[in-house]
From TrEMBL:
Superkingdom of origin: Eukaryota
Gene3D superfamilies xref list: Acid Proteases
Keywords: Aspartyl protease, Hydrolase, Protease
A family per Pfam: RVP
Occurrences of domain Peptidase A2 (ranges): 55-130
Region Disordered, residue ranges: 1-25
UniProt organism field: Hirundo rustica rustica
Xref: InterPro entries: Aspartic_peptidase_AS, HERV-K_Pro_peptidase_A2, Peptidase_A2_cat, Peptidase_aspartic_dom_sf, Retropepsin-like_cat_dom, Retropepsins
GO BP terms: proteolysis
Record-given protein name: Peptidase A2 domain-containing protein
Length: 142
């Protein structure tokens, strides 16, 4: 009698996050220190007043999406209530998302077009959405 190993089926992950968590989630879990890498970026929105602002933020590989501080967000730039909230240290915070796309340009001139999340957080976070568009690679064998 010969035993055969079972074959796994090809399964599509779909639009969900890792595992079975459902839609992508934003979780605030980082401890902010002066040792974390940060950069000053230009954030611009076509047709808006002001058309651009300059924001310093942390390069956060643990954040799926970029999250900007509500205090730094120009009140004239339209926001809508996000379908997700930020949970982690200090409880859960209401989250908004820009109604219009914005360009996030780093000091090297690389731009990422995103619809950033905006919340009452103490520090702007440049997440993996922006880092990937900039071509940032993480590793130990460079």
């Amino acid at each position: 009698m010969r035993r055969r190993a079972r074959r796994t089926e090809d399964r599509s992950r779909g639009d969900g996050g890792f595992g079975s968590t459902g839609p992508p989630q934003v979780r605030w879990t980082a401890v902010l220190t002066k040792d974390r890498p940060e950069t000053l970026c230009t954030v611009s929105m076509v047709g808006a007043t002001p058309s651009e602002i300059h924001l310093r933020g942390l390069l956060d590989t643990g954040a799926d999406v970029s999250i900007l501080s509500l205090a730094a967000w120009p009140p004239q730039w339209p926001l809508t209530l996000a379908k997700t909230s930020i949970s982690g240290l200090g409880g859960t915070k209401q989250c908004y998302v820009s109604q219009n796309p914005v360009a996030i340009t780093n000091p090297e001139g690389q731009a990422a077009i995103i619809w950033p999340h905006v919340a009452e957080i103490p520090q702007n976070l440049w997440g993996r959405d922006v880092l990937a568009a900039w071509g940032v690679q993480l590793g130990t064998d460079f």
